């Protein structure tokens, strides 16, 4: 994606606004998924879905102007590695290893699938 030139101040404001909204969406999605999956696995799900969306948005030239808002802003706030690390603290070594491997494999694959889904739909 080629991102059109925007001022730094505008880009920072877009990222900040998007991050705030993304963080709220992450908490809501986590609350919705946690009763079924538990905290750690609901965070993995949110991260995988967010990576799919990042790949999809990156493949949409019409959204290039809004990349700071939607990419690193909204979806950056929606996905979270820091909360994931905190949740590993309560996991057994085996579960922590599984969570890490699933995250490190599923997130890049999801981003690629998101990009390919949009590219093929055009």
From TrEMBL:
It is a multi-pass membrane protein. Na(+) binds at residues 76, 79. Pfam families: CRCB. The chain crosses the membrane at residues 12-34, 40-59, 66-90, 96-114. Keywords: Cell membrane, Ion channel, Ion transport, Membrane, Metal-binding, Sodium, Transmembrane, Transmembrane helix, Transport. It catalyses: fluoride(in) = fluoride(out). Na(+) is not transported, but it plays an essential structural role and its presence is essential for fluoride channel function. This is Fluoride-specific ion channel FluC. It comes from Corynebacterium hansenii. The gene is fluC.
